[in-house]
Amino acid sequence: MSARAGGVSLPGRGAAGKSGGVLSRVTSSFSESPIVYKGKRVASDASFVAKKLLKSTGKAAWIAGTTFIVLVVPLIIVMDRDQQLSDLEMQQASLLGAPPAISGPQK
């Protein structure tokens, strides 16, 4: 009489041990399922779109930043300089006793 006659083979022994355990068979069948394949494909597509979006957003931010530095910052500097000059003229006029000039719209 053989040891296997009518008995149950233990995990890791006999025919079940050669083809892998239950866990490895379930894992391989799960990883090869169409749902997992579609999920991986969707994740890959989402990653591709995110990279493209990030790249184009970076380009737009670079264009906006350099435009701001080249056009707006010099304008702010000139406006600040004009304001300081106007304040200085008002101080000098008040020290000399002249009535302060009204800045604003004239009618």
Automatic annotation (TrEMBL):
Keywords: Membrane, Transmembrane, Transmembrane helix. InterPro entries: Tom22_pln. The chain crosses the membrane at residues 60-79. Residues 1-22 are annotated as: Disordered. PANTHER family: MITOCHONDRIAL IMPORT RECEPTOR SUBUNIT TOM9-2 (PTHR46867). This is OLC1v1006931C1. It comes from Oldenlandia corymbosa var. corymbosa. The lineage of its organism: Eukaryota, Viridiplantae, Streptophyta, Embryophyta, Tracheophyta.
